[in-house]
Amino acid sequence: LITRHSTLYLAKNRRVVMPSWTEHEEIKELQKSYSRNKVRTTKYTFLSFIPKNLFEQLHRFANLYFIFLAALNFVPIVNAFQPEISIIPIVFVMSITAVKDLWEDQRRRKSDQKVNNRLCDVYDRKQKRYVERRWAEVCVGDLVRLCCNEIIPADMVLLHSSDPNGVCHIETANLDGETNLKQRQVVRDLPQGSEFVPENYSSHIECENPNNDLRRFRGFMEHPGKVRVGLHSENLLLRSCTVRNTETVIGIVVYAGHETKAMQNNSGPRYKRSKLERRLNMDVLWCVILLLLMCLIAAVGHGFWLSGLQNPIYMIPDDTHPALAAFYMFWTMIIVLQVLIPISLYVSIEIVKLGQIYFIQNDLDLYNPVLDTGVQCRALNITEDLGQIQFLFSDKTGTLTENRMLFRRCTVAGTEYPHHENAISLEQYEDQGCGDADHSLTLRSRTSRKSLSCKSLSCNRSSVSLNTLTAESDTHSVHDTLRRHTPGAFSGTMECAVVPDPQLQAKLNTLSSAMRSPPRQQAAEISHILDFFLALTVCNTVVVSSPTQPRHVMPVVRTPLRSLEEMKAMFQKLSLPRFPSSLSQNTDTPTSLTKKLFTRGRSASYFPNNSPQTPIMTLQSPTTPSGTPSYTPSTPVTPALSSGAWSEDVDDIQKAKVNSADESESDDEDEAEELLYEAESPDEAALVQAAKAYGCTLLGRSPEQVLVVVPGTGPLSIPLLHVLPFHSARKRMSVVVRHPLTGEVVVYTKGADNVIMELAEAAEDGFSREVMERTQRNLDQYAREGLRTLCVAKKVLEEQEYEAWLKRHEYAETSIENREELLLESAERLETNLTLLGATGIVDRLQEEVPETIEALQEAGIKVWVLTGDKQETAINIAFACKLLRPTDHILMANCDSKETCEARLHELQHEIRQVTKEGVSEDDSSDCVLVIDGRTLDYTLQKELQGSFLELTCCCRSVICCRSTPLQKSQVVRLVRDKLKVMTLAIGDGANDVSMIQMADVGIGISGQEGMQAVMSSDFAISRFKFLRKLILVHGHWCYTRLANMILYFFYKNVMYVNLLFWYQFFCGFSGSTMTNSWVLIFFNLLFTSVPPIIYGVLDKDVSGETLLDLPDLYKSGQNSQAYLPSTFWMNILDAFYQSLVCFFIPYFAYTGSDIGVFSFGSPINGSALLIILLHQLIESRTVTWIHTAILLFSALFYYAFVLLFSLTCVTCNSPTNPLGIETKMMSDPLYYLVCGLTTVLALLPRILCRTFCNTICPSDLVRAQKMERLSAQDYSMSLRQWKENKAAQRLSSRHVPQNLSVNADMPHLTDCIAEAGAVLS
User: Fold this and answer.
1) Peptide bond into 887 cis (omega under 30)
2) 596 annotated as ligand-binding
3) Burial label, 429 (beta-carbon count in 10 A; 0-12, 13-18, 19+)
4) Sign of dihedral through CA atoms 306, 311, 314, 315?
5) Cα(686)–Cα(408) distance, rounded to whole angstroms?
6) Is 1239 exposed, middle or buried (0-12, 13-18, 19+ CB in 10 A)?
7) Closest among 614, 651, 607, 541 to 765, alpha carbons compared
8) Is residue 66 marked as binding?
9) What is the DSSP string of 512-578?
10) Of the candidates 194, 363, 578, 666, which lies 20 to 30 Å from 218 by C-alpha distance?
């Protein structure tokens, strides 16, 4: 029993879940405290909107500042004008923001209502049946029943599945974007029958508290008999996922509502502060200092002015001391000059960024018609950062490459099989433009040539799996056969098109050939080959289905007698004399031969023979004195499959068989039984398809067994004991199976080559050592060809060894605390002393236009780093292929085994670069050096003591390639460069292993590729192809930065210019805080009359066209150097504003000196001139003038004059105590008004026009030169463009000196071959 004390303890540390009808009072109260399933992603309610939105907006310093000024204006002793008018600006700005927030919140509210009102079946104990309930009413402890294609309402532990094997499949696309199916299984030891009786369920669950880790679930289920069963992620159905291929599932809710993992990961839009925004905040502080200085001058001036007066008759006498009056005047001037701080700037920036995002997302050049996706802008406030990128960190697989893994070649037991025909067929297929033809597929029926229509089979996800089935063809060419493949996840047409190597195929054919037996030396080799392909077939998590059955149903059949007889005949052909041993032929049976064939290879050994000149050596296996094998299995041979597991007849088996006889049957028969593979990674799909091409076909999978076909046999059921999934720390995965023929417990492992080679045992007989050496040479060759390498190994466990490991492994599975660490240790204990079987080489082709994109980014001054987990040779070859490396580049290698060696190596490389520099090389020449560093060395360089040396070295290199790097190292590298070098960084990747790097960079970009949407969901921007990065950065990034920078500078300019008019007037009114403008115009001038044109300018202005920016990547450097918004540029604009305000004030002043006009009449030509100056100033700054710009400028001018005229004609007491009635109409009827306005405008703008003309003529910038080029004819433009590039190339060449002897790491002798083959880029 659970005591009250333990309940309180568990409430803090764990979660206890029992059925909702439990009579345990403490548990019932505890479950009531858990979150309900109603979700609310809105910020506000009807009552909380106003106070909460105000509270949020008051977090902005600018809003607080203006509210303070509005409140200050209500103090009679310091107010400057009508208090009611002073609150208009802040109310206007905050109202616009509130309306925007309310609109966004309303969209979220509608979405929440739709989700909460969905229905599901929940068990009601009172009614003794399942009843429909809204999602919002589901609670922790409820038993929920779901049918196929229904969405899971909450996180549930799977208690029952209609599948007899207790499994179901879910699609997690709504959660992580992955479309391949995930397999989930019922908790062990729960009764599985045709029906699940909720009343009989009395177990309780203890699990971890809610968290956001989608791939982890720790806990256990305790049955009434105190038996505990471990719970893991395989038992958990996650909210928002969809049930597929299972008629019914039942689960108990453990997390509901906002405690579910889906909601824990729902962080909403990302918010980052851009570099320009940080600069803006600094300049706002300068404006505040300027405001305080101007107010201080006015206050001191007012005090001195009062002290100099001797009882003037026009002032009401009071007892206020001049110093106190000056203090009051300081606050009055704060109110008068408040417009110096641009209150509308922040709202304008948000509007401009929304406009920029709209144009980015609707750019057709960034649209991918294949995926029907464009650019996604997930972070709404850092668009301008795209125009200032200095360092780009890229993943390789799936980012630079397709992440469509195609099996290319393999090596088994030291013998390399090049698969030349496979390579030729893939090249021919791509040349015919079929690389993306996976969208038009044909399924043929068994009895006709007609296309099989796409039906919903049971609850099979046909629409997702089979896509659209069209394009029937009766031809039987190779390429037609390729096109007819039906893909699952990562199983498109190209992945399925594996042409076997003739030599390897011939060796496997000996197993099914009735005419000839294998040569003597091939017996052990065939043993390795069978194990190799068996490992490829079973060591994965691939889900299997066919067009005629759902994925989760395994075609379970009874093994026919014919298959067993064939199996015996196959092994009889491998009689003992053919093994290179001295064992007697007459003493062994086929059963003993079966055992020998599948032992670890020590009973029969051979040396690989790659050439006729290589002598064949044989070693005798250990034997007993009587000459019989010393190995006797502890478990009897069990070729028969588990009874009761097979339900179909012998005919179905023969249809599923894959052997030489089946291959001669008609295409229609093969196509009718075409298998669909849903893989979690493209590597798995490629390897399973390769094994299938050789006749080792994966037919089905369940939690307990795997159904496979081996050449020469019928379906074999392989008991699946354990799956040790891939882990980034282990870099491998394993399966533990009981061999169907020998009964032995066998571990099959596949993983990274460097890891598997370390774990492979070194056999005393030298055979394994020889295999490892040959395999390593083949791996090096694969890497030089740019192939992804993977090693395959096995291990045979003794029964006692397996039982001992199993006990500790079960303890790790049932642990809640430190479960991941314990499982990792358990897997590492098992994966030791492996026997190497072979290795595979998989080609991952470059995406289109990747070389051109990287070349353009480098020309733009962006340093491109590649962070990959691949081998150095592979990474170097890919770098050459994508033009990250050039044939003339000098590769600096850093491969060190200790921290001291690493430090010495870094100093050595720095010294060599300095020596080259002393020989007369300019700094630009360092761009010829490229650093290649491995993961172990990278660990050392990331330590605090070596960070400085590492960064100093990388600054001298044009690019850096980090190999064998982990996800953590990727993020650490990005953070190091970002924080230490103070540069703008961008990280791009496509997989979950890139998430930390993407989040660490200033700008994170995710690619919606083959590895799901984890990278996209963590990114600021999402694209579908790497090539789109070119226009996104070089064009849209440049535009966004220059537009926003110029708009901000313009806002500062116009506010300072207009405020200074009021400041100059104080020198003529005794610094009394009076203004020559009525308060309405004063408030609306910057808020309405001049605020719209800069917004249009910030959204639509183009200093250079997109085509020119792509042709001349050098233009991007202006954004990297922040040339549009330098401190000097800011202060030049401020000085220009001071000058223009002086002209705008004093020309009307001298023009009307001696006249009898009033104060407001004097202000009329000043306001009119200021408006024209400010609008025409923007016209001068605009690089693009369209009808939209012209219309907005005219509208602003007409709006101002319409307002002041209407105000002058109708307003009598609008500006108490003065009266503006008739002032504007009288002034505008005087010709002097227009003369003053025109002369003032010309003189104010003349210096800026002359300065710009002088600079653009004498020393034009690259942007100005590009603008001039665009005005040329097409022919002249092409000539100028060619001349431009020749000049830039000549400049780089003149500063380049190629060093003759820059050494590389002596530990990498094969690197010379990599460089020599640099020209062989990947097609």
Assistant:
1) no
2) no
3) buried
4) positive
5) 9
6) middle
7) 607
8) no
9) T-SS----GGGHHHHHHHHHHHHHHHHSS--EEEBTTB-TT----BPPPHHHHHHHHHHHHHT-GGG
10) 194
What is the tens place of the pLDDT at every residue in 227-279? 888 888 889 999 888 898 788 999 999 999 888 888 887 655 555 678 888 88
Alpha carbon separation from 940 to 949, 953, 978, 1000 (Å, rounded): 11, 14, 19, 20
| 1155 φ, ψ (degrees, to nearest 5) | -85, 175
For residue 179, with 0-12 CB atoms within 10 Å meaning exposed, 13-18 middle and 19 or more buried, which class applies?
A: middle
pLDDT score recorded for residue 132: 92
Distances (CA, A) of 211 to 14, 632, 730: 12, 50, 24
Is residue 780 annotated as involved in ligand binding? Answer: no
Kindly tell me if the per-residue pLDDT of 760 is higher than 90: no
Helices (H), 246-342: 261-264, 275-307, 322-336
Here the tokens at position 717 are 């059921």
112 has binding-site annotation: no
Separation CA 527–CA 132 (nearest Å): 58
Buried b (16+ CB within 10 A) or exposed e, 866-893: bbbbbbbbbbbbbbbbbbbbeeebbbbb
The reported pLDDT for the residue numbered 865 is: 93
Average confidence score pLDDT of the chain: 76
How do 715-727 and 705-709 pair as beta strands?
antiparallel
What DSSP designation does 238 have?
P
Q: In this structure, what token pair is assigned to residue 1320?
A: 């062989």
Where are the extended beta strands (E) located within 148-223?
155-161, 167-171, 181-185, 204-207, 219-222
pTM listed for this prediction: 0.70
Q: Which two tokens stand for residue 749?
A: 């492992």
Is position 990 annotated in a ligand binding site?
yes
Higher pLDDT, 793 or 924: 793
pLDDT, tens digit, 9 for 90 and up, residues 1194-1218? 999 999 999 888 888 887 666 665 6
For residue 628, how many other CB atoms are within 10 A of its CB?
14
Strand 697-701 with 705-709, pairing: antiparallel
Burial degree of 460 (CB within 10 A; 0-12, 13-18, 19+): buried
Query: Which residues sit opposite 623 in a β-bridge?
Result: 629
Tell me the per-residue pLDDT of 859-876, one tens digit each, with 9 for 90 and over: 898 999 999 887 777 788
Contact 841, 682 (CB under 8 A): no
Cα 669 to the center of its chain, rounded Å: 42
Query: Cα–Cα distances in Å, from 501 out to 416, 417, 418, 686?
Result: 10, 7, 7, 16
Percent of the chain with pLDDT over 90: 16
The tokens for 742 are: 């020998």
One-letter identity of residue 566: E
Q: Is 623 labelled as part of a ligand binding site?
A: no
CA distance 63 to 439: 54
Mean pLDDT to the nearest integer, 1011-1040: 85
Rounded Cα gap, residues 549 and 820, in angstroms: 36
- Show the tokens assigned to 886: 């050039």
User: How far is residue 166's CA from residue 552's CA, in Å, rounded to a whole number?
Assistant: 10
What whole-number distance in Å separates Cα of residue 251 and Cα of residue 221? 13
Q: Write b or e for each residue in 717-735: b if 16 or more Cβ atoms lie within 10 A of its Cβ, otherwise e.
A: bbbbbbbbbbeeebbbbbb
CA within 13 Å, CB half, 545 = 31
The residues that are catalytic are 395
Express each pLDDT in 1147-1194 by its tens digit. Answer: 999 998 888 888 888 888 999 999 999 999 989 888 888 888 889 999
Q: Packing angle between helix 682-693 and helix 523-538, nearest 10 degrees? A: 140
Q: Is 470 annotated as a binding residue?
A: no
- Give the residue among 1034, 1181, 1044, 1042 at the shortest CA–CA distance from 1106: 1034
993 is in an annotated binding site: yes
Is 353 known to sit in a ligand binding site?
A: no
